[in-house]
Write a structure and sequence with these properties.
The chain folds into two domains: about 1-90; about 110-235 and about 300-340, Bira Bifunctional Protein, Domain 2 (BirA Bifunctional Protein, domain 2), CATH 3.30.930. The chain has eleven helices and nine strands. Helix content is about 40%, strand content about 20%.
Length: about 350
């Protein structure tokens, strides 16, 4: 009995080696017979129970070898057919045909919104500051009042560089604030736009890469009232002159006190819709007074200077302004989607 099974496997091996399908249809038949989910080799693996104990190993090795032969042969034949198809297409190319005109593109919605935000703050004296995306742990976390054992680190799931515990892809543009404060004494008034990275599950509402704009103002006698008026000005320039804001207590390791800012819903005029979840308010950013420990970490005297900071996600703003319901659309580079957006910014 075992001799017959061995002969059967060897016959299949010979059939594979001699096969030479030269069309896509013939190759597909080869794949179904020898490589597909219901290929003729699968039942043979169950026949090992009928083989004498001293030949079981030999039989298993033979069947595995035939399976590998089939996969290798299929890949080779597939590559050969694709190469022939490419050569045929190249031979039909008409070099005398007129070229197709290049279509003019439009700005990406994230760029539109980022530029709009930056211009609003530039009008009141903020200067754009940009820095590296590969950052060290101190500027990204420790300088911003999140030492190694601080529970706030759990708020952000970080991408570290391979074989490194100190170099990472920045999780926020707060690292730009840290580097600016280390290198420059007050007065400081900056806006820091840029791409950031967090190890998050990609879904309609979140992505592993996105963009932020953070602002920082440090000087003598800076108060929470200054922060509130700055954000009210931004909200009315961004969402309309009748926009109202509210500040709710929150927590961030680098500001104290901290707050979340909501704006009256600009989609439904605060009457209630699915964007504002029928509350009339939409959360847009986080903010607060710079923690004295952050100032001290960066070499600024907290007894002499105070400051405020704020930050917002650009994709969130773009999705609200353009009524986009899936953040993944912003990263797929689908021209049909991107062609919808035009702006003077």
């Amino acid at each position: 009995m075992s001799a017959e099974i061995f002969d059967k496997v060897k016959n299949i091996q010979a059939e594979i080696k001699s096969a030479s399908p030269d069309t896509a249809e013939a190759l597909e038949q080869f794949r179904i017979r020898f490589v597909g989910a219901k290929n003729i080799l699968k039942p043979l693996f169950g026949e090992i129970r009928n083989i004498e104990n001293e030949r079981k190993k030999e039989f298993g090795q033979l069947v595995n070898q035939v399976k590998q032969d089939a996969e290798t042969k299929f890949n080779q034949l597939k590559a050969q057919l694709e190469e022939k198809a490419e050569e045929a297409d190249a031979g039909q190319l008409d070099l005398t045909a007129p070229g197709e005109p290049l279509q003019l593109g439009a700005r990406h919605p994230v760029s539109i919104v980022m530029n709009r935000i930056v211009k609003i703050f530039e009008r009141i004296g903020f200067v754009v500051a940009e820095e590296r995306e590969i950052e060290d742990d101190w500027h990204n976390f420790t300088a911003m009042n999140t030492p190694e054992d601080h529970p706030a680190r759990d708020m952000q799931d970080t991408y570290y560089l391979q074989n490194s515990t100190s170099m990472l892809l920045r999780t926020h543009t707060s690292s730009v604030q840290a580097r600016t404060m280390v290198e420059q004494q007050p007065p400081i008034r900056i806006i820091a736009p840029g791409r950031v990275y967090r190890n998050e599950t990609i879904s309609a509402r979140s992505h592993c890469q996105f963009h932020q704009v953070e602002g920082l103002y440090v000087d003598k006698n800076v108060s929470f009232a200054d922060l509130k008026q700055t954000l009210l000005y931004f909200a009315r320039e961004m969402y309309g002159p009748d926009t109202k804001i509210r500040l709710r207590p929150s927590y961030f390791p680098f500001t104290e006190p901290s707050a979340e800012m909501d704006v009256s819903c600009f989609i439904c005029n605060a009457e209630g819709c699915n964007v504002c979840k029928y509350t009339g308010w939409v959360e847009v950013l986080g903010c607060g007074m710079v923690d004295p420990a952050v100032l001290a970490n960066c070499g600024i005297d907290p007894e002499e200077y105070t400051g405020f900071a704020f930050g917002m996600g650009i994709e969130r703003q773009a999705m609200m302004l353009y009524k986009i319901n899936d953040i993944r659309l912003l990263f797929e580079n689908d021209v049909r989607f991107l062609n919808q957006f035009t702006s003077a910014y």
